[in-house]
Amino acid sequence: MPTKSKLPLFPLPEPQPQPQPQPLRSSLVPMAISFANATIFSKPSLFLQRSTLAFCLRFSSFSTSSATVQFHAHKKWRQPVTSSLVELGGLKISREEIVKDDPTNNVPDSIFSKLGMQLHRRDQHPLGILKNAIYDYFDTNYPNKFDKFDNLCPIVSVKANFDDVLVPADHISRSYNDTYYVDSQTVLRCHTSAHQAELLSKGHTHFLVTGDVYRRDSIDSTHYPVFHQMEGVRVFAPADWDGSGIDATSYAAEDLKKCLEGLARHLFGGVEMRWIDTYFPFTSPSFELEIFFQEEWLEVLGCGVMEQEILKRSGRMDNVAWAFGLGLERLAMVLFDIPDIRLFWTMDERFTSQFSKGQLGVKFKPFSKYPPCYKDMSFWISDSFTENNLCEVVRGIAGDLVEEVKLIDNFTNKKGMTSHCYRIAYRSMERSLTDEEINDLQWKVREQVESKLKVVLR
Ligand code: DAH
């Protein structure tokens, strides 16, 4: 498992030296394996390090219909993209509205190029197959009950992404180091929970939202800055729990657990399961479901009884609700034996042809093992250095040819200067890379790391 301090569902932005407290998690319970873009929300608020944010927040709101957003000078280091118009949630959005040379914008072209790909809507893709299998479960057990959304626009307001689901103002997930901001009031959603409040306000009481979500992150075989989640919400009215002999919250929690245990059995068969108490800003009580699969405890999802405040603000005073969120990649990697998260994005037929509609859990047969090539790079960091920024630079140059960026040495000298040595693993899943190609990539990485991250190469 990753040696960096990764949280159960999703990772921390920077290596954290101290062990992180796990609220309510019993220290006697062995940790489940932690991988594939999991939750940062299972932490209470952590203060943002504002000094490291070289961004002045200015007021401006994003309007998807606005054509007035100005395109500023093209940043030299950005790679050209092929298409500059993308369709999102039924709207056409131009690159200039998303990638802006503005201090309140940190969306690179490498991320813009992923918008609108919607892997979860492809029936032959492992993520689409998994989504459909989850739909099948809900359709069978709750016929015509759950409304399904898989085409909601991933560009959302800060309010929808954070405020409406009660993410504290100082929570680390709000930082520019963790989240892609289009402007100070607009982000690429970092979780599908961003749609909870709006759908509740519109009157939906049973719904599933599937979508691509975006997070600035480190690079390894289980982390990718774009991944996919499914959110589920079920609202109860007093008539549901009246006469059950238990209070509304317990009633919702029991129903939630029953529903999700059934889902886990539907996907994984007769596995051993356990519930772990945890923390999410949007639920109370909050739980994680883990299953014992292939000799390890695997975190499957986060969930809980929705905070009453969310319901109240959506005009649902008298109701209770449960909610869950799960990462499709992490489950698909296990169910289909997919060893590297980049594979979900490959167009290589040797990958795509192995999966077909409705076939959950067909085991992926690796078609190649091209050798990795390692390049080390040492530099003196500055105060504002973050690993996520480094990874963004590397991905911007090498794209999916970078497999891992790993801190292998870290020391501070007598003068108080800190040096980091990172090892970059380059490997294509599709072909052999030439020395020349890799040297060229590494050269560009070195150049941009120095110019963009204000570090001094050693
Ligand atoms: N939004 C959480 C995340 O991205 C996942 C989640 C946890 C969603 C609990 C929920 C929930 O709706 O109740 O990590």
TrEMBL record:
Residues 368-458 form the FDX-ACB domain. Residues 211-366 form the Aminoacyl-transfer RNA synthetases class-II family profile domain. GO terms for molecular function: ATP binding; phenylalanine-tRNA ligase activity; tRNA binding. Residues 10-22 have a biased composition (Pro residues). Keywords: Aminoacyl-tRNA synthetase, ATP-binding, Ligase, Mitochondrion, Nucleotide-binding, Protein biosynthesis, Transit peptide. It is found in: Mitochondrion matrix. SMART domains: FDX-ACB. SUPFAM superfamilies: Anticodon-binding domain of PheRS, Class II aaRS and biotin synthetases. It comes from the Eukaryota. Residues 1-25 are annotated as: Disordered. Belongs to the class-II aminoacyl-tRNA synthetase family. NCBIfam families: pheS_mito. This is phenylalanine--tRNA ligase. The lineage of its organism: Eukaryota, Viridiplantae, Streptophyta, Embryophyta, Tracheophyta.
